Amino acid sequence: MPLRNLGRTYGRWWDEAPSRNELFMPQSCGGIISQDFIDLEFEQAVYPFRVCVYETYNPGSVVRIWAEDSKEHWELLWEGEPQCVGHTSRIFSPDIKSTNFPTKVLRLEFSHAHLDYYTELDAVLLVGTKEAIYRADDQPSSVGKLTSQIMQLNIHTIPPQVDIPSSISSFLDHQLPRLLKVTEDLTVQTSDLIEDLPYSNFNCLPISRDEGADTRVGLADLPLDPRSTPSGGCEPPDHIVFPLSFSQLLLDADSRASSMASLQPGDEAIVKIFGYLDLLSLCKCSQVNRQFHRLAADSLLYTELNLKVYWYCTTAKALSFLTPRCKYLQKLDLSWCGNILSILPNDFIRFIDDCGGLLTHIRLNSCKFANNASIIKIGEKCKSLKELSLGNCLEINEAGFWGVAELKCLERLDLYHTLITLEPLKALIVGSSHLVHINLGSCVQVSSMDEIAQALALHCRDLVSVDFWKTYSLTPVGVRSLSMCSKLQEVDFGWCLGVGAPGNSLHALAKGCPRIKKLFLAALRGVGDRDLEPFMDFCPNMEQIDLVGVRSITSTVCMQFLTRFPRLRLLDVSFCDQILDSEVSYWQFFFPHVSIKRSFQHEDRLPQQGLMNGS
């Protein structure tokens, strides 16, 4: 890795900003939600037994490590909660799962929500052998099936960061008494319930469960035909009487007898319950019986589809399986899905042909199958589209973007780090009079961002957020034009080096956009106190200010921010040469409700954020 790698986000600040994204099908997201990833390719494939991540600044955001085999299938090597480590550096080397294939491609997933500041990586080391030193099918016969599964999951070892004495002490002092109390209460309630029930009620069919089963299976690999069984034997009955569950203990004792006859809910109730299930659980419910198979395929359960969380197993086969269920699909997130072979452009085109007529939201961030033909099909089929997110889609060129230039209903447009050029982008904006959020960060192929800013000012008067991060062709002319968007609440001009000497453009922006809450001006070294003072006069709702590397500002304007912005929650003055550390410490003490950031790095350089793949 020749460059340091930094993310563009940290903490909850981006989730609290006006441009925050809503999750589609949030019940599928699970406990650990990642925001970014990086793929790393090494020179030689090895059987991995160690991965070392050199975290030089704000470590603790790595939550998953994946390995890819020669057929582009992914296997999870390690997963864990994000850690709060602090402002330090470390070599993170978790115990990883062994594989029976060599790999030279790793994917690291990151969760930044808990971080106090940007994370930074220097390198990733992959250690392995050319020949396999362990295979699951080569185990000695003395190793049982359960032991084998424990070893494969790497739960027979304790990670080095775990404090064993403290963990044992905490368990004995706090968790064990509560566990014993709950067990005692449940025993008493179960005894009472058994006494109240006739013996015949225990004549129920057992439900088979494989406790060691791997939940990370392909969506389309689940046997969804209700006539199929794991053993290939006779088909299941039309309904199964489930054994008593702990939820039934909550029934009032007086009503137990009368309620036994009505434990079979109607279809509407089952569909309502299914609406709270994640996608994988819905697939598994299809295996229970004919009734569940029919109800789990109800199209009303698939108006939103979030396949981003299943990126590792989403294939053309999975899309084909989901197609008949998605007659009413409105919101689709395929971000991160589709390696070179797992989903081809034609697979996606067929899916859009069959299911895209009602789509209002599409997210295809970092999708390799998103090419010109795919985007042209979206423009043809999805006329009611309100959101289009194509961040990091580098297979689309000018011809493809012209294919969506006729969309008229767009409210959110994310083109972060794409190859869009001036003319199709201008056409998109002119036709999108309802545009509310637009992300043009790192769109370096646009020859004149000033023309884009002027088009936004003329045609998108409802604009709330705009991101011009690292768009070097933006100048004070474009900034001044945006002052006509009076509803603007969020602007990011970070690293827009053409705005280095802003003139009166920031004054015009503050006066014309009094609702601004978030102002990011990273690395605009020509900005001084005088340029920022108008925001105190005209923008009383300011909440987040990023002045990283704005070296001409002084502590005077920062103190005014802290005293005159009652809603201010974030102030970043890292790498601001005119501000002393002692002054920052003073502010942090007297304004504890404001998160004041001050990078302590000693190198005389600014961090180059944004090398990760976005969400």
Automatic annotation (TrEMBL):
<keyword id="KW-0833">Ubl conjugation pathway</keyword>
<dbReference type="GO" id="GO:0019005">
    <property type="term" value="C:SCF ubiquitin ligase complex"/>
</dbReference>
<feature type="domain" description="F-box">
    <location>
        <begin position="267"/>
        <end position="307"/>
    </location>
</feature>
<dbReference type="InterPro" id="IPR036047">
    <property type="entry name" value="F-box-like_dom_sf"/>
</dbReference>
<dbReference type="InterPro" id="IPR001810">
    <property type="entry name" value="F-box_dom"/>
</dbReference>
<dbReference type="InterPro" id="IPR032675">
    <property type="entry name" value="LRR_dom_sf"/>
</dbReference>
<protein>
    <recommendedName>
        <fullName>F-box/LRR-repeat protein 4</fullName>
    </recommendedName>
</protein>
<dbReference type="GO" id="GO:0031146">
    <property type="term" value="P:SCF-dependent proteasomal ubiquitin-dependent protein catabolic process"/>
</dbReference>
<dbReference type="InterPro" id="IPR057207">
    <property type="entry name" value="FBXL15_LRR"/>
</dbReference>
<dbReference type="Pfam" id="PF25372">
    <property type="entry name" value="DUF7885"/>
</dbReference>
<dbReference type="InterPro" id="IPR006553">
    <property type="entry name" value="Leu-rich_rpt_Cys-con_subtyp"/>
</dbReference>
<feature type="domain" description="F-box/LRR-repeat protein 15-like leucin rich repeat">
    <location>
        <begin position="325"/>
        <end position="448"/>
    </location>
</feature>
<dbReference type="Pfam" id="PF12937">
    <property type="entry name" value="F-box-like"/>
</dbReference>
